[in-house]
Structures are given as C-alpha cells and as structure tokens.
Design goal:
Layout lengths: L3 E6 L2 E8 L8 E9 L4 E4 L7 H42 L3 H33 L1
Antiparallel strand pairs: 1-2, 2-3, 3-4
Length: 130
C-alpha cells in the first residue's frame, strides 16, 4: 500500500498520509498537504510537518501530474483538429440549410479567433528566433 494518497481536484490535489497502524486496523487518511498544479507548488496542511520522503513524493507526483496534464492538453487539441475536419465534412455532405444557418456564425467567429491567436503566436515565435 502506498504511504500517500493524492485526491485529485481541479487545480491540483489534496495529499493524505495513509495510516493503517491504528487501534481499529482501519485505513485512516490524514490530510498533510495541498498541491497546486497551476502554480507548481504545494504547502503543508495546517501544522503538518512533512518528512523528507513525503516531500520528495509530493514533488515527484507534481512533476508527473503536470506532464500528464500537458500531454492531455495536446491530445485534446489533436482531437479538436479531427473534430474540425469532421465538421467540414458534415457541412459539405450532410448539413441542411437550416442546420448551417444555426451554426455558421458561431463556427466562423470561433475559427476567426483561433486563426488570429495562431498567427499572433507564430509571429511571436518567428520574431524570437531572429
């Protein structure tokens, strides 16, 4: 059994120390820290003092979690590209005039916004490489 349990939440996790050495032999969770993946930091909960092993385990978890979230973000973008292609195929081959009228403005605005962001970011990258 691991010594720490990480309850994932929206911006990180709550870290619990597992305790099985109690009088009821029940699994007890003691909150010891809060991790923020957005800021890349963590802090002990209340008056808890983290051991060197717990500190290292939390740091390892944070690095691993941030990498997993970054990979997930990139996968979401790749799925978005697929969805854009499927949407184009739908618009060309299946959509009715009424369906197109319902979504055309929203799609055009979203694509225009995305195009502007991508071009601005590409321009910034090219400027930095000069």
């Amino acid at each position: 059994m691991p010594q720490l349990y990480f309850r994932v939440r929206e911006n990180g996790a709550v870290v619990f120390r597992l305790d099985t050495e109690n009088r009821n032999r029940a699994l007890d969770l003691q909150q010891i820290a809060v991790v923020n993946t957005n800021r890349g930091d963590y802090k002990p909960h209340g008056d808890q003092v983290l051991s060197a092993e717990e500190d290292a385990a939390i740091k390892d978890w944070l690095v691993t979690r941030q990498a997993a979230l970054a990979a997930r973000d990139l996968d979401d973008v790749r799925r978005s590209v697929d969805q854009i292609n499927l949407t184009a195929q739908w618009a060309q081959s299946k959509a009715t005039d009424a369906q197109l009228a319902e979504v055309t403005e929203d799609l055009l605005l979203a694509m225009h916004d995305l195009r502007n962001v991508l071009l601005r970011k590409k321009s910034d990258r090219l400027d930095r490489s000069d």
